[in-house]
Write a structure and sequence with these properties.
This protein is mainly beta.
């Protein structure tokens, strides 16, 4: 069974930086997309950034230029470098992998979430 383990969240002052990591464990045939989502209190979960196996990257407009997503395919790990953090970035951040099994079935796996708290 595939599991995602996140790390790197915490409390930071506005203007600071954090780096999130998400590593997969278990037997994965192929990872197609690695992504980061976030959910602030009282709001819907939103896509922050994702990177495809081909290297295509997309960012939420509000984080473009401040956040950088990267992946280490050999280690089945995705990172999110967050710079110039703002209080409105406060949320629980989740990673998600979109995968294909050896039987060519698509599935997705979510991490447990890590809290990012940006103080003014």
């Amino acid at each position: 069974q595939v599991q995602l383990v996140e790390s790197g969240g915490g409390l930071v002052q506005a203007g600071g930086s954090l780096r999130l990591s998400c590593a997969a464990s278990g037997n994965i045939f192929r990872i197609n997309v690695m992504g980061w989502y976030r959910q602030a209190p009282g709001k819907q979960r939103e896509l922050v950034a994702h990177v495809t196996s081909g290297g295509t990257i997309n960012y939420l407009d509000s984080v473009n230029g401040r956040f950088t997503i990267s992946r280490d395919n050999a280690k089945s790990t995705v990172f999110l470098q967050m710079n110039s953090l703002k209080p409105e970035d406060t949320a629980v951040y989740y990673c998600k992998f979109e995968c294909t099994s050896r039987y060519y079935r698509s599935y997705e796996v979510w991490g447990q979430g890590t809290l990012v708290n940006v103080s003014a």
